Structure formats: C-alpha cells, structure tokens
Amino acid sequence: MNDWNINNKIYELGKGYTLEAAEKEEYSKYYAVYFKGDVGFKKNFKQKMAVVSEDDFCFWIKKDDVKIGGVFLEPNFIQELFLIPPFDNAYEVLKLIKRILIHWSDRSKDIEANVVIPSQVEIYEKLGFRIVETGRWMLSPTRKFDVKWDDKLQVVLPNKDHTEELGKLFYEAFKNAPGQKFSLKERTEFVEYYFEHNSHIEMLNKASSVIFDRETNELIGVCLISEYNEWPLIYDIAVREDYRGRGVASKLLKKSLTVLKDKYSAVRLHVEGGNDAETVYYDNGFLPGIKLTSLIIPSENL
C-alpha cells in the first residue's frame, strides 16, 4: 500500500480502484455538478466551483481507469465524497479509502470525515465512524416587515465598544447547547473578527442590531450580519436566556430581512443540529438545506 506523499499522483486501492491526484480546475467542474451538499446555497455555478482551492488535496476515484467519483483526502481527513453516475457503490469505495486513510494517518489523532451528505452517513457509521455533529444551511428571501420594538428595549447598531459584552452574551447563550465547544475567549475573538471584516460596510451594519434593556442597561440580544460570496450571512444571533420566548429573535431577523431588501435578494444562515433556534428560523420563512454531518474514527479505535 502506497505511503502518503504530496508528490505522489496515483495510489492503488485494490480491486481495480485507484486514487489519482486531480487538476483543480477540472475537478471543480465535476465537484460543482456531482456533490449533492450545496454548502451555503451558492449563488451561481462559478461559486460552487470556487469551493476547490489550490490548498486542497483532491483526488479522482477511478475504477479500471474510468472516473467514478472524487474526494478531498489527506492524512486524518476525508471530505465531500461524490460519485459519478451510473456508479453508486459508495460502501465499496469508502471501505477501500478507509483502509488507505488509516495507513496514511497519525494514529494518535482522530480521523475526521466532514460535510457528509445524508445518504452516506449510515455507510460511514457501518465502517466505524461516529457522528460528532450535524448542521444545515438555511435561506430566506429578503422582504419588508413592520417591526415594532417594546418600549423597554433600546436597539442600537453594533460597534467595537460592544466586543467584550457581545462575546460574553454569545458564550452564555450557547454554553449549554448541543456540541458547544467554544470558550469565552474564542467567542470574543469571533466578535473581534466580525468587526475587523464587516463593520465598515454600511448596509451590513444597518442590518445588524444590539439590544439593551433600558431599565437595567444590560445587553440582552444581538444579530450580526456579514457578507460571504456576494450574499449576506447571519454571522451570529443570540438572545439572553431569560428574554427568550418574547419574540426578540424573530424581530431581529425581520429587521435584517427588511434592511437588506434594498440591496440583496436573499439571506443565509447556518444552524447546528439540535439547536432550538432552527424552529425560529423556519417560522420566519427560512428554507432548510440538507443536513450535513461530521464524523470521526476515534484515535483509540485505529
């Protein structure tokens, strides 16, 4: 079995199957057509192709020298496997790929399988992978709403002076959520990144909101809007636990959809599996995309 080497172009898998290093531009066309998890609701075909970068290790999967699929693959990592019709034997392909992947990998670390589409999850599980988390993208058209705020709430535009407070709010809001893994420091760094890359864009800033309780002057809610691949993205949204159930999150979303309508046709967001907020998004007109799953083979099982 071939060892991993970034200069190798072909790896033998057995049973007539091979992996062959792919030229990025050609691979991106096949990926855009055949990978069934349209990550992030790409706006056009060119954007779907752009997912493949120069830093990726992408391989054709061949059977008797005929292309039957493709995959991103490197030691301890597999992502976005696709098959080319009429070939459909994903189990056989994955079984062989798993064998060489274990051979390549550092066995003191987990092997990660990311962006796995629903039809393949059970196959990964049969081959010894365990589910770590799930998530999906959601999409809504922008449109006008008449948003009326409670007089007890003060709604302002976000600025860098709010960074520490926002980091704390996001941390407290999500610390008990399924799959929560970010520290207060990391949450604050996400807010810092947001301001560094988005706050200078007037439309995004106007569509974002920070909410305080007028009586206590405490921060109770936030919605930050960024832009990615020409479409606005709900970068993060949170409401303090004791203010939930009062329609605050819905109003934050509706304000964003209303402001953004002047420039954009749609808004995206990403929600982790098990997050109760998915119902709020759905009730406000967001269309759920397909569920995508991350799995691992734990290092102790290698």
TrEMBL record:
Domain of life: Bacteria
Name under which the protein is recorded: GNAT family N-acetyltransferase
N-acetyltransferase domain sequence ranges: 153-302
Species the sequence originates in: Oceanirhabdus seepicola
MF terms in GO: acyltransferase activity, transferring groups other than amino-acyl groups
One Pfam family here: Acetyltransf_1
CDD domains: NAT_SF
InterPro entries (UniProt xref): Acyl_CoA_acyltransferase, GNAT_dom
